[in-house]
Amino acid sequence: MLIEIPAVLEPETLRHLRARLAEAAWGDGTATAGHQSAKAKHNLQIDARDPLAKELGETVLGILGRHPLFLSAALPQRVFPPLFARYRAGTDWFGDHVDNAIRYWQGGTLRTDLSSTLFLSDPESYDGGELTIQDSFGPRSVKLPAGSLVLYPSSSLHGVTPVSRGERLAAVFWTQSLVRDDGQRRILFELDQEIQALQRDAASQDALAPRVLALTNIYHNLVRRWATP
Ligand SMILES: O=C(O)CCC(=O)C(=O)O
Ligand SMILES: [Fe+2]
């Protein structure tokens, strides 16, 4: 399931991130690529050990950790710190590739269940740079407003088309979910969204309150059954 989450970043946070990224020390993106994706990857990124990457990564993780739609859709157990990427016009793109199933980090491991791109450049400011994802319904091309993010199963082949004008800035990160199976996670997300809609209706119709309670109970019982914390 591919989920778009609009306006994750406030305009002011976006301005702050972009201003800090303009001063960053950008290095070759292949530094962290696996054997197969190194051949496909043509972009720049900030070294994960760079204090700036850590600081901005924490800002993004803090926002995600409080974002109801991200929490509902990803059911995150752990989120790998964002990698800041830059694609320049005329040279940069990322051919179709797979993300490694396991990422090593802080002496531990993270299983990549979900991949995400948080778009940081205004779509009007660059040409190309579409994120193409092989969804179960066929290829999807994603180019979102700055500050919005897309969440997709890490099992999908994906890439970024060449940038032909301007530059594309993005924060890319991976999530290990409490619910590993994409189909189960999708059922929980849809159920949770419906319960929340019903809860809004229940505010003006008392008779709905027991229904909301019963469905909320079902939601949590499914989480108990499917989550592996
Ligand atoms: O820049 C993007 O949107 C995706 C990057 C990507 O696929 C990766 O770093 O593995
Ligand atoms: Fe990738």
Describe the structure in your own words:
The structure is a single chain. This protein is of the alpha+beta class and 229 residues long. It folds into two domains: 3-177, Jelly Rolls (Sandwich); 182-226, DNA Excision Repair, Uvrb, Chain A (Irregular). Helix content is 34%, strand content 32%. The protein is built from six helices and 17 strands. It has helices at residues 11-22, 35-40, 51-64, 68-74, 182-202, 209-226, and strands at 3-5, 26-28, 41-42, 44-46, 76-79, 83-88, 93-97, 102-105, 108-111, 114-119, 127-128, 131-135, 138-142, 149-153, 158-160, 163-165, 167-177. Strands 1, 2, 4, 5, 6, 10, 14 and 17 form an eight-stranded antiparallel β-sheet that branches. The model has no long low-confidence stretch (mean pLDDT 95). The structure holds 2-oxoglutaric acid and fe (ii) ion (FE2). Residues 85, 94, 99, 117, 131, 158, 160, 170, 172 line the site of 2-oxoglutaric acid.
